[in-house]
TrEMBL record:
Species in which this protein is naturally found: Mixia osmundae (strain CBS 9802 / IAM 14324 / JCM 22182 / KY 12970)
SUPFAM superfamilies attached to this UniProt entry: Bet v1-like (SSF55961)
MF terms in GO: lipid binding
Residues annotated as domain START: 56-188
Protein name in UniProt: START domain-containing protein
UniProt xrefs under InterPro entries: START-like_dom_sf, START_lipid-bd_dom, START_lipid_transfer
GO cellular component terms, semicolon-separated: cytoplasm
């Protein structure tokens, strides 16, 4: 399930104020009601005045993985469809800045006789020290209605905080599925949704985390990522820029024997690669500036 390859440069989008407001509202609830543990995830709900649906919260810890690695896996559409019971496919559709983008989710319904929902939204990654927060909020106008889906609205915050060698995940979610749904089914759906961090944790424990950039030159634009979980194949298409790219990969699960690196596209001409432990380094010359390059990682053959 590939992510869409977006334009070679960022597109205009004025969504920072909307995202800042969504972030503030996600952190507004104070009186959390304990819903118990589900799938190793502590779950809660809270109501804000004037809002019919509750905010949901799920908390868990994933061992031996950094916040950046968790974020990369959280953002990967193929991974999302594997662990999220409500997600059929997830695609980044527009990129406004390195950490701001729009996405579309074609959902699936884990509950019989309930139509699948879809979501069109924007998202932003906030960074403070070693803690990362991904904020998402629905937006109108970017993603046309799709036949066979009921458009849901979503507001969410995923906070990924280091705890020693582990990462604590805290998800806060406010969702309106829209359409007519019996209360009992809404409550069941809320219970599933609140435990989402636990499903993400279990996925990482089984499959590991996907590769991600930890260093890149100014001017590089990430245009899209594709992941094949069965074959542990990962590729990322970028608009190249002179300088050094550093990619971290999971050497304990996804790439136990190491990785093979293949560069393709016009921007790959003259670029040099090196692998050291769990890092891939790519150095691009000036002639690569502005050209498309795809970075392909696959398991090293024994």
């Amino acid at each position: 399930m590939p992510s869409m390859i977006s334009p070679a440069s960022y597109v205009d989008g004025q969504y920072d104020l909307r995202l800042d407001a969504a972030r503030e509202q996600c952190h507004a609830p104070a009186d959390w009601q304990d819903l118990g543990e589900r799938n190793g995830c502590n779950t809660f709900k809270s109501y804000l005045p004037g809002l019919e649906a509750p905010f949901l919260k799920g908390e868990t810890v994933v061992s031996g993985v950094s916040p950046e690695a968790v974020l990369a896996t959280l953002l990967d559409g193929t991974c999302r469809a594997a662990w999220d019971e409500f997600c059929g496919s997830a695609t980044i559709t527009h990129r406004f800045a390195p950490d701001t983008f729009a996405f579309y989710v074609a959902g699936r319904s884990p509950i019989p006789l309930i139509s699948a929902r879809d979501v069109g939204a924007v998202a932003k990654i906030y960074r403070g020290g070693d803690t990362i927060e991904l904020v998402q909020t629905s937006i109108d106008g970017l993603h046309p209605a799709q036949k066979g889906f009921v458009r849901a609205t979503v507001q969410a915050s995923w906070t990924l905080a280091p705890s020693g060698y582990d990462t604590k995940i805290v998800m806060i979610l406010h969702s309106l599925p829209n359409g007519k749904i019996p209360v009992s089914i809404l409550e069941r759906g809320a219970s599933i949704a609140a435990a989402a961090p636990g499903h993400l944790r279990d996925f990482i424990c089984k499959h590991g985390t996907v590769p991600f950039m930890i260093g890149r030159p100014d001017g590089l634009v990430n245009r899209g990522t594709e992941t094949n979980l069965k074959k542990s194949l990962w590729s990322q298409t970028v608009t190249a820029a002179q300088g050094k790219i550093t990619i971290a990969f999971d050497s304990e699960k996804m790439y136990k024997a190491g990785v093979m690196v293949v560069l393709s596209g016009e921007g790959a001409h003259g670029a040099a690669t090196a692998v050291d432990n769990d890092r891939v380094t790519i150095v691009s010359p000036a002639c690569c500036d502005g050209l498309s390059m795809t970075i392909n990682l696959s398991p090293k053959r024994a």
